[in-house]
Design goal:
With 143 residues, this protein is α+β, with helices and mostly antiparallel strands. Helix content is 29%, strand content 50%. The chain has a 7-stranded antiparallel beta sheet with strand order 1-7-6-5-4-3-2. β5 (73-80) and β6 (83-94) form a beta hairpin. The chain is globular and about 45 Å long. The termini are far apart.
């Protein structure tokens, strides 16, 4: 099962980075391979969201439950779609200078062997592009 973890220090506040990551509706505007998102429901500190991802000839939709623990963390749990398993987590910590340390991790496994092979080959590159897209988005919003 592919997995990745990464920590980055960003020159923005904990609440700014939290708000940016929590804004799931904006993902198609900046996130590679994200074609569309839709919020199905919002309940207290959770939302259920659909996301459509596309890569080359593949196009898949999946549903996740997003737990929002403002401003400390966001945890995404898979509900329905092409995966056997999908989990990602964001943890946001403020340092003494007001910067934000972002701790990001993702693990997943596709149901389809074909998708697993296709994505598995580019997984590390894909995750780095996605993390970079969030960094650029922060620069655009707050830089």
């Amino acid at each position: 099962m592919p997995s990745h973890a990464e920590k980055k220090m960003l020159p923005y506040s904990q609440s700014q980075i939290y708000d940016m990551v929590a804004d799931v509706v904006a993902y198609p505007d900046f996130l590679p391979w994200c074609i569309a998102t839709r919020i199905r429901s919002v309940d207290d500190n959770q939302l259920v969201a659909d996301m459509v991802i596309g890569f080359k000839m593949f196009r898949e939709q999946f549903t996740s439950r997003v737990e929002l623990n403002e401003p400390r963390s966001i945890e995404v749990k898979y509900e329905n779609g092409p995966f056997k398993y999908l989990k990602n987590k964001w943890v946001f910590e403020s340092d003494e200078n007001g910067n934000c340390l972002v701790d990001f991790s993702v693990e997943f496994e596709f149901r389809s062997q074909i998708l697993e092979i296709a994505i598995g080959k580019i997984f590390t590159e894909a995750v780095h592009r996605m993390v970079s897209a969030f960094e650029k988005r922060a620069d655009t919003l707050y830089g």
